[in-house]
Sequence to fold (331 residues):
Amino acid sequence: MKIKSISRMLLLIAAALLISSIFIPIWSIELEAPQYPEGLVLLIYANKLGGNVEIINGLNHYIGMATLHSENFIEFTILPFIISSFALFAILVALLSNKKLLYVLFGSFVLFGIISMIDFYRWNYNYGHNLDPNAAIIVPGMAYQPPLIGYKQLLNFGAFSSPDIGGWFFISAGILFLISTIIELRKVSINKTNTFISLILITLLTSCSNGEPKQPKLNKTNCDFCKMTIANDKFISQCITQKNRVYYFDDIACMIKHKSENTNSENPVYYIADYANPQKYINTTNAILIKNDNIKSPMGGNIAAFSNVKDANEFQQKEVSVKLLWLDLVK
Fold:
């Protein structure tokens, strides 16, 4: 049986995305540390490594990690051909309009995705665990395996691993294969298909945006600026980057200083705990800030935040205070 015209269109779009992913970074591992305020990045293409490879190799030499060279990975030789094959396969399915071939395409693509992530995990594991015993710096029991995805602290370096533009193209192609398969299996109407595609796009856009505030563990989590242990939940502040890296602060004063020293950061969103309800976090652009020297916040910011005018006014009436806005503090 032949597949619908909308499925053929989705297959052709997926093929274009796959071809494009060969020429741009598929994955990135970002490293940040006090001595590298602008950060270092390892870019993984379909056929090579890019970014700050030489600097990262120089640093890793001290802790006994193997140096990275594109020619040492057979994956970089075969991956462009595999991706190209999937793109050509998708075009062939669209031209032949064959349902069985569509199902084979989707199944093999999912299997390839699983094998690729297992191989990437294996690569990370070997890279982080097989260390030179004669390295200049040895920390007993310490391994340096980068995260498969997400954030991980490695000594004084923070490592963030995530798909890059090419990786999102690859994932999007898989989603289009899935949509096409569902359309043919369930005989979904055009209206329902458009709704489904819209939901997928919204999900993808949401996944690339800043996450929601999180509650740090009191007396266990350290402030990312002053390094003091966070003990008072009434003054907790935090910023969340577009890649969902969360920085916690024990005082809004620390968050302001962090912001001033990280002007090239990736458009973070800033939050502060509601003084009247510390489990609730307020976007700083919407917060009503009250400054009073008697508030006594951990690092001398002496600012309390409120989400509504009533609570702020009641608090302000108790003592002579100054009402501020976030822009007043960071301008």
